[in-house]
Amino acid sequence: MKTLVIRREKATGTIVNSALMLLSILAIIAFAFDSYGAGSTPQATTSKSETAAEKRAKANVFFEQGMRYQDQENYKEAARSYEKAVKADPAYAEAYSNLGYSYRKLGQFDKAVSTYKKAIELDPKLAEAHEYLGEAYAEMGKFDLAEKELKILRDLGSDEADELAEFIEKKKAGN
User: Fold this and answer.
1) Is the Cβ–Cβ distance between 134 and 167 less than 8 Å?
2) Which structural domain range is residue 126 located in?
3) What are the tens digits of pLDDT across the range 60-110?
4) Residue 166: how many CB atoms within 10 A of its CB?
5) Where are the alpha helices (DSSP H) in 36-173?
6) Which among 37, 114, 137, 152 has most CB atoms closer than 10 A?
7) What pTM value is reported for the model?
8) How many structural domains does the chain have?
9) Radius of gyration of the chain measured on its C-alpha atoms
10) How many angstroms separate the most distant Cα atoms in the chain?
11) CB atoms near residue 127 (< 10 Å)
12) Do the domain assignments include residue 1?
């Protein structure tokens, strides 16, 4: 029987981050009890596939870690954490968006663009991914593509449209 060990750490996040972490831990514990219940064998547990909720719970642990690194502007470690999040849950659009953001901050524009596109493929209405993709295009001097993302944001009625419009203008002015 496997035992989950949970270390108590100093609470540093917001209530939302703490709640997400708690939900992630509970999902992992529930998975462990389901997989390693009385009378189960290791062979029986290896064939069971994870549910979407279990994948998301595992991914959330890495996502929250990535957000902490991102808040510290440690984009290399943030990218590593987000990479683990999307590996744990390949359907996690927000994790792809944040991974793209980290890549962009590291100057890896091609990786950032492809990662933003994956986020948008998973969730076409994810305004944050459209904004960041538009910013990446503007930084690359591809203003026509940046303007297309701006139009999408306006069509979505997103507040991020104003931020992207301002960013594009700054980049066009050479700032």
Assistant:
1) yes
2) 54-172
3) 999 999 999 999 999 999 999 999 999 999 999 999 999 999 999 999 999
4) 10
5) 42-46, 52-71, 75-88, 93-105, 109-122, 127-139, 143-156, 160-172
6) 137
7) 0.73
8) 1
9) 19
10) 68
11) 19
12) no
